[in-house]
Amino acid sequence: MSEQAIEDPQIGLQLIPQQGSEYAAQVDHLYYALLGISGLLMAILAGLVVVFAARYRRTLGRGRGKLLSDRSGRRVEIGFALSLCAAFIGLFFWASHLYLELYGKPATDITIDVVAKQWMWKFQHPDGTREINTLHLPVGETVQLRITSQDVVHSLSFPAFRLKRDAVPGMYTTAQFTPIRTGESHLFCAEYCGTDHSRMRGKVVVMSQTGYQRWLAGQGDAPSPADAGEQLFQSYGCSGCHKPGDATLAPELAGIFGKPVPLASGETVVADEAYIRDSILQPQKQLVSGYQPIMPSYSGQISEEEILQIISYIQSLTPGEQND
Amino acid sequence: MTSVVYSENEDRHATPRDYLSGGWSIRSWLLTVDHKRIAWLYAVSITGFFFFGSAAALLIRLELISPAGDLLSAESYNKLFSLHGIVMVWFFLIPSIPATLGNFLLPMMIGARDMAFPKLNLLSWYIYTLGGLFTLAAVIAGGVDTGWTFYTPYSTLFSNSAVLAAATGVFIVGFSSILTGINFIVTTHTMRAPGLSWLRLPLFVWANYATGLVMVLATPVLAVTLLLIALERVLGIGIFDPALGGDPLLFQHLFWFYSHPAVYIMILPAMGVVSEIVACFSRNPIFGYMGMVLSIMAIALFGFVVWGHHMFVSGQSMYAGILFSFFTFLVAVPSAIKTLNWTATLFRGQISFSVPMIYALSFLELFTVGGLTGVFLAALALDVHLHDTYFITAHFHYIMVGGAVTGYMGGLHFWWPKLTGRMYSRPWATVAALALLIGLNLTFYPQFLLGYAGMPRRYHSYPEEFEILQVLSSLGAGVLALGYLLPLIYLSWSLRHGEKSGPNPWDATGLEWQTPSPPPVHNFAETPVVTEEPYAYK
C-alpha cells in the first residue's frame, strides 16, 4: 500500500476547536450549558460530601442525629427527580433541534460527493474536480455532503464544524454545513476501519469564494459528475432502454428524482439516491409497476463513484430534456 | 474425608467447619460445588484475565506518549486495543462482581446454604474459563484487530484474522453469564430465609438480582449476533454485508441491544456494593431504600431501550435517534437518584474513613463524572461532535473503571475479612485506594479534553498538538497501575500473615456478618430468621 504523507493542519491545541460555522457556535453553547449544570451538580455533591464528612465524622464521638422522616425523604427524592427531568427535557429539545438542522435537507449551494475506502477519503466537487484526504471549500456557501463507502464503515469527522457522519457501504448519508471563516481544520476518519485507520485523515481548507474558483480552475478540466454520468449512461448501455420520450421497455428517467414511484408490488417508493443505487445493482428488488424484470444487475461492474455520477446525471434531467 | 465436595449424607448438626478447612487439594477446588469456593475460582480467573487486559492497556498508553506511531506497528496497536476491550469487557468486567462477591455473598445475605443450582454454578465457571482461554488464544495467536465491537462488514469480510474463533469464545462465555443469571434469579426467589421479605433484601442482593435478569434477557441476543457473523463469514450468507444484500446497521442494532445492557451488568453490582459500604461506615440506614430498589429495577428496564444512542451518526433514522436520545436522558434519572441517596445517607451519621469507605466515596466522585458526561452524550447534537472521540473513551472508563472496578475493589476490601478471616494492611490499602482515585482521574480527565478538541479513538498515530494531553493520560495510567498492583501484594500477604479479623470487624448488619469468618461450609449453623429492616444501624 502507498505510504502517503499525512497532511495535518498546523493549528495547535484548541480545547474548543475553531468555530467554523454558526452551527459550531450553537453546539458550543449547548456544551457550555451542560458544563455549567454538571459543574454545579458536582460542586453541590462534593460540598455535601465534604461538609457531612467533617461534621458527622465518627472521631467526634457524637451520637447519630435524628434522621429525616420517610415523608420528607421522599419529598427530597421526588423534588430532585422532577427538577432533573425538567432540565433534561429542555436539553433534549435543544440538542434534537440542532441535530435536525445538521442532518436535515435544507437548500444547499453545492453538493460534494464523498466516497470512503480503506484508507482514504475521495471527494468530488460539482465541477468534477477530485481530491483525496483534503477538502477545499468556499466560505459562505452551504455545502451538502453525500457520503458512502466502497468497503467498510468509516466516519467523516470535521471537528471545526462539529460535524460527523458515518460512511456506510450500500447507503448514502448526508450532512450539511456553512463555513463562515477561511482557514484550515482537521478532517478525520472517526470509525475504526482497519490497519491504517489513523492515517485516514487530512484537512479541510476553507477559501474565499474567488480563491476557491481559482483553485478549481487550477485543477485541470474534469467533466462534472452529471456530464460524466451521462457518458456512463451511454457506455453502460442504459440509454438503450431508458430512452427519452419512449417508456415502452423501461421507465423514462427525466424528472423522476425525488418523486414517488409506483412499484409492481403495489408499494410506492421515493426515487432518491438509495433507490437509484439499488435499481442499478439489484434491479429486480423494487421493480417499477408495469415493467418486465429484464434489466441486468450491474453489481460488481460499476464503482461507487460511477453510481454517484449516474445519480447526478439523473438528478440533472428535467422532463423532456433527456438528450442522447 | 477431607474434601468439601459435600454429599447428601453429610451430618448437618456437626460442628460447622470453615469452608477452607476442607483442604487445598486440586480436587477440593476443581470439583467443589460450594458457592464460596467457586467465587474464589472465579476470582483467580478474572484476576488472570485482568492482568492480560491491563498489560495491553499499558502498551497502548506507552505507544500514545508520542504522536508518531513508533513503538508498535499499526497492526499490533489495533490488535492490542482489541485484546484490551474483549478481555476487559467479557472476561473481567461482566463477571467481576457478580461471579466473585455475588457468588460468595448472595446466598449468605439471604440466609441460604448455597445457590439454587450449585452444579450449574460450577459449570458456569468451567464454561467461562475455558471459553475465555480459547478466546485469548485466538486473539493473541490469530491476531484479532476488529476492536471489541466486531463491526461489520469489517469483521466479516475485510479483517483477515481469527475473528471467527474469537467470536466463538465470546459466544461460549455468554452461556456462563446466562447460567449465573439464572442461579441468581432462582436463588433470590426461592431461598430467602424466613422473615426476609423482598423489601428487607440488602441492596447488593437487589442489584445482583437485577443483573441476573439483564444477563438472562440480553446475552442470548449477543449469541444470536455472533452466530449470524459466523454464518456470513463461513457460508457467505448476506446478513450484514451490503455486497451480499445485507445491512451493516442491523449488526450495530443487534450488537448494542446486548452491549448497552451489558454496561448495566457491570455497573449495577458495583452500585449494590457501594450501598452496603456507605450505610455501614456512616452507621445510617440507606436513605430512601424504596427509591433505591425502584432505581435499580428502572435502570435494568430502561437499559434495554437506549441501544440506539450508540448510532446517532450511523445513518439510522433521525427520528429513531431522537427517541433513543429521550430514553437516554430518562435512564440518567434513576442513577442520579441513587447518587443523591448515597450522599444523603451520610447526613447525620457517624462517618469513618476506613478503606472500603474511601473506595465508596471515590466511586461517588468517579461515577458522577461518568454519569454527567453521559448526559452530554445523550444530547444529540453534542454526541455527533463527541461520538467516536476520546470523550467517549473517557466517559465509559469513568463508568467502567471508575464505577465498576472501584466498586469491585471497595467490595473486596469490605468483605475480605469475611472471605478470608484475615485483615489486610490498612495503611497500604489506603495508599492503594488513593492511587486508584488519583490515577483514574489523571488518566481519563485529559481524554475528555482530547475528545472535545476532536481527537478520534483507536488512533495509532495522531496530530502533534494532542501530545501533551496524551502524555498526562499515560502518566495517570502509571499511577493507576500502582493502585492495582499494591492490593495484589498486600491482599496475598494478608492471606497468611494478616491479623485475624473475627466474624464482624466493621460491626455491620446483614446476615453474612452473623456467621464466623471464614464462614462454615453451609454458611449458617441454623437457618437464620430475619426480624429487622435492612441496614438497622443504631
UniProtKB/TrEMBL annotation, chain A:
Record-annotated membrane-spanning stretches: 30-54, 75-95
Catalytic activity of the protein: 4 Fe(II)-[cytochrome c] + O2 + 8 H(+)(in) = 4 Fe(III)-[cytochrome c] + 2 H2O + 4 H(+)(out)
Pfam families recorded: COX2, Cytochrom_C
Keywords (A to Z) from UniProt: Copper, Electron transport, Heme, Iron, Membrane, Metal-binding, Respiratory chain, Transmembrane, Transmembrane helix, Transport
Location in or out of the cell: Membrane
Membrane topology: Multi-pass membrane protein
GO CC annotation: membrane
Positions of the Cytochrome c domain: 224-318
GO MF annotation, one: cytochrome-c oxidase activity
GO biological process per UniProt: ATP synthesis coupled electron transport
Domain Cytochrome oxidase subunit II copper A binding: 107-218
Keyword Heme: yes
Predominant location: membrane
Top-rank taxon: Bacteria
Coiled coil: none
Xref: NCBIfam families: CoxB
Protein family per UniProt: Belongs to the cytochrome c oxidase subunit 2 family.
Physiological role: Subunits I and II form the functional core of the enzyme complex. Electrons originating in cytochrome c are transferred via heme a and Cu(A) to the binuclear center formed by heme a3 and Cu(B).
Name assigned to this protein: Cytochrome aa3 subunit 2
Biological source species: Microbulbifer rhizosphaerae
TrEMBL record, chain B:
Record flagged with keyword Cell cycle: no
Family: Belongs to the heme-copper respiratory oxidase family.
Compartments, as annotated in UniProt: Membrane
Domain (Cytochrome oxidase subunit I profile) ranges: 29-531
Protein name, entry field: Cytochrome c oxidase subunit 1
GO CC annotations on file: membrane
Record's bilayer topology term: Multi-pass membrane protein
GO molecular function list: cytochrome-c oxidase activity; heme binding
Major location (coarse): membrane
UniProt keyword list: Electron transport, Heme, Iron, Membrane, Metal-binding, Respiratory chain, Transmembrane, Transmembrane helix, Transport
Gene3D superfamilies in UniProt: Cytochrome c oxidase-like, subunit I domain
